Fold this protein.
Amino acid sequence: MIVTLAKPKQKRVQEVLSRAAGDKRYKILDAHMKKHQHRQDALIEILHKGQELFGYLDDDLLLFVAQRLRLPPSRVYGVATFYHFFQLKPKGKHTCVVCMGTACYVKGADKILVALEGALGVKAGQTTPDGQVSVLTARCIGACGIAPAVVYDGTVAPRQTPEDVLATLQPWLSHGSESTVGD
Ligand code: FES
């Protein structure tokens, strides 16, 4: 991971920026950075917002912030790893982020999370013992119109139900966990 950020070749930056262009969460983060006038001393505040939006901080997000604030990626990565309240991309092969913002919450995000935690036997912020799925939460990912929203491996899915989530996760699970999901 450090290697990726230590060598932010222009191509890699361009890839991140073009991915970000189609993702509303990045737009919200951009607006937040603008509010802070892209001040470098607002880095911690901006990373907090990023974590709220994405549930964790991954390489793409850190590179995006570095590019926008005109900071060396190593500095952004250093801050993200120094403070315990920042969560870097979780260990699971797959990630499932449940939006717990107000619009999603009132439409049943809490039930989705309970179903997910019950079926997988892990709490939000944890990864299944087989390393297949990490469960995370975020606060308003900018998709309130399609609440409740869940993000599967970076793809936002609209109007999810507990059944939808369990069905989507089923193929991700190793044989040992399959029998517990959807029972
Ligand atoms: S509250 Fe979930 S997308 Fe806004």
About this structure: Residues 176-183 have pLDDT under 50 and may be disordered.
